[in-house]
Write a structure and sequence with these properties.
There is one protein chain. With about 475 residues, the chain is α/β, with parallel strands linked by helices. It has one domain (about 50-240, about 300-485): Alkaline Phosphatase, subunit A (3-Layer(aba) Sandwich). It is about 35% helix and about 15% strand. It has helices at about 5-10, 15-20, 20-40, 75, 80-85, 135-140, 160-165, 175-185, 250-270, 270-295, 300-305, 320-330, 350-375, 445-455, and strands at about 60-70, 120-125, 130, 145-150, 195-200, 230, 335-340, 380-385, 390, 410, 415-420, 425-430, 430, 440, 445, 465, 470. The strands form five sheets. Strands 1, 4, 5, 6, 7, 8, 11, 12 and 15 form a nine-stranded mixed β-sheet that branches. A two-stranded antiparallel ribbon has the order 2-3. The longest helix has 24 residues, at about 270-295. The chain is globular, with a radius of gyration of 24 Å.
């Protein structure tokens, strides 16, 4: 047999695909390395990122996204509608829902009864913002907040809707917002990840949502840009600690040897993910020193801890995660994603909604106040909101108050933003008189994403990544910057 033919016959599938990718993989990664090297040289200490970014002067350096997983009820928290009180218990008029799609739990809303807010509303601050008694602490910072009351989306179920907000697509597998920003802008520190995630859920809740890893995934971007999850128990980051008896010098030597072996593998196969593995080993080594200092809150003054509420010292609570978010922001982390589950109140508005707001209201407001007193709110964008809202009509029996609930509602809901170039003390957009449909200055999810990227100095149409022959971006082929929100 011809030696060449024999060699080809004995070649494994893995070897064939690995070797055939050398040219493409090497070229692709060389391009990435070249751009990152230029960025490091030109960005004044920035770690990574693309050399052409930011496209223009940024108002925000970082983002803290307080994602309320499960969909908070806008009609009970921020979107005050006196008509709901007047029509309480009456069937919602068909003109409000005709032609609209709802979850299978609602189906056809015909005959569904309007439900008034569970708690009363009050006006706060010079802005006169209407905020429910559920959210008194947020009301106390209303003059620093922009309430967007005209959000809308297309998704009616949780996972696709969350995925749509965070990645621009309802299908899992696209890069999430934090990954896009890490890829484009890099980081302001080399000893912590550029994109971090923390999750929490109120104690005793029966309506918590699953946190899927793809909510902070990098999709088709190199995996070094995916979010790093900080955990509530044990080691804050999995596999970060060295085994017992292993010193820092020994660990350093092992990593150096691993890097040499991985480099040989990379030279043979040209897979960019091998270089990612080397970089992530180095990041883990640096985090062994940086994370203990980050997570030690013993030196935080008592008056600062008090801002975040009574649960601030308990790891895994939303309050603790908010404090950690501020500490991460101080240390140069670009995108900090806090996800709190339990807002899916199909039959627990009069019970679990009280728990949710108790656990999240004061920490959210405390984070804003803490950043403001440190002079960091000006260049830190805070976002608070969920994947959609909840129906103005009742899910359940109007005569059984302990089981009142609201179903999923994509046609109008509220998010709020603060700092980082957002106009403070304003309400933008509006829903109709029952909070059913966004009718004034409507803001789609892609518009929302485009605006966030604009505040960070990115033209959302220009930050793209070529994958499978097509150039992708966070906003797909949609999105307009909502300039009326900007300072």
């Amino acid at each position: 047999m011809n030696p060449l033919t024999q060699q080809q016959a004995l070649q494994t599938r893995r070897q064939f695909f690995g070797r055939s990718a050398v040219g493409i993989g090497t070229a692709a990664y060389a391009s990435l390395l070249h751009r990152e090297a230029e960025a490091n040289a030109d960005a004044g200490g920035r770690v990574g990122g693309l050399p052409a970014l930011p496209h223009y002067a940024a108002k925000a350096k970082r983002v803290i996204y307080l994602f309320m997983n499960g969909a908070p009820t806008h009609t009970d928290l921020f979107d005050y509608k006196p008509m709901q009180q007047k029509m309480h218990g009456e069937p919602i008029p068909e003109s409000y829902f005709a032609g609209k799609r709802f979850s299978t739990m609602t189906g056809n809303p015909t005959g569904k009864k309007v439900l008034a807010p569970v708690e009363p509303y009050r006006q706060y601050g010079e802005s006169g913002a209407w905020v429910s008694d559920f959210m008194k602490h947020t009301g106390g910072v209303a003059d620093d907040v922009c309430f967007i009351k005209s959000m809308y989306t297309e998704q009616v179920n949780h996972a696709p809707a969350v995925t749509f907000f965070l990645s621009g697509s309802e299908m899992a597998g696209r890069p999430t917002m934090g990954a896009w920003l890490s890829y484009g802008l890099g980081n302001d520190t080399d000893n912590l990840p550029s994109f971090t995630v923390m999750t929490s859920v109120s104690k005793g809740t029966t309506c918590g949502q699953i946190f899927y890893d793809y909510y902070w995934g990098s999709g088709f971007l190199p995996s070094r840009f995916q979010g790093v999850k900080f955990r509530a128990g044990g080691d804050p980051v999995l596999y970060l600690s060295s085994p017992a008896g292993m010193s820092r010098p020994i660990r350093r030597g092992i990593l150096d040897d691993l890097a040499k072996l991985n480099e040989l593998q990379y030279q043979e196969f040209g897979d960019p993910e091998i270089q990612t593995r080397i970089a992530q080993y180095e990041m883990a080594y640096k985090m062994q020193a940086s994370v203990p200092e980050l997570t030690d809150i013993s030196q935080e003054p008592q008056h600062v801890l008090a801002m975040y509420g009574p649960d601030v010292k308990e790891r895994g609570t939303f309050a603790h995660n908010c404090l950690m978010a501020r500490r991460l922001a101080e240390r140069g982390v670009r995108f900090i994603q806090l996800m709190h589950a339990g807002w899916d109140q199909h039959g627990s508005l009069t019970t679990e909604l009280y728990n949710q707001t108790r656990d999240t209201d004061q920490p959210s407001a405390g984070l804003l106040r803490d950043l403001k007193q440190r002079g960091m709110l000006e260049d830190t964008l805070i976002i608070w909101g969920g994947e959609f809202g909840r129906t103005p009509f009742l899910q359940g029996d109007i005569n059984n108050r302990p089981k009142w609930g609201r179903d999923h509602h994509p046609y109008a809901f509220t998010v709020w933003m603060a700092g980082g170039g957002i106009k403070p003390g304003i309400t933008y957009g509006a829903s109709d008189d029952l909070g059913m449909n966004a009718v004034k200055d409507r803001v789609h999810v892609h518009d929302f994403q485009a605006t966030i990227m604009h505040l960070l100095g990115i033209d959302h149409e220009r930050l793209t990544f070529k994958h499978q022959g097509r150039r992708y971006r966070l906003t797909d082929v949609h999105g307009e910057v909502v300039r009326s929100l900007l300072v």
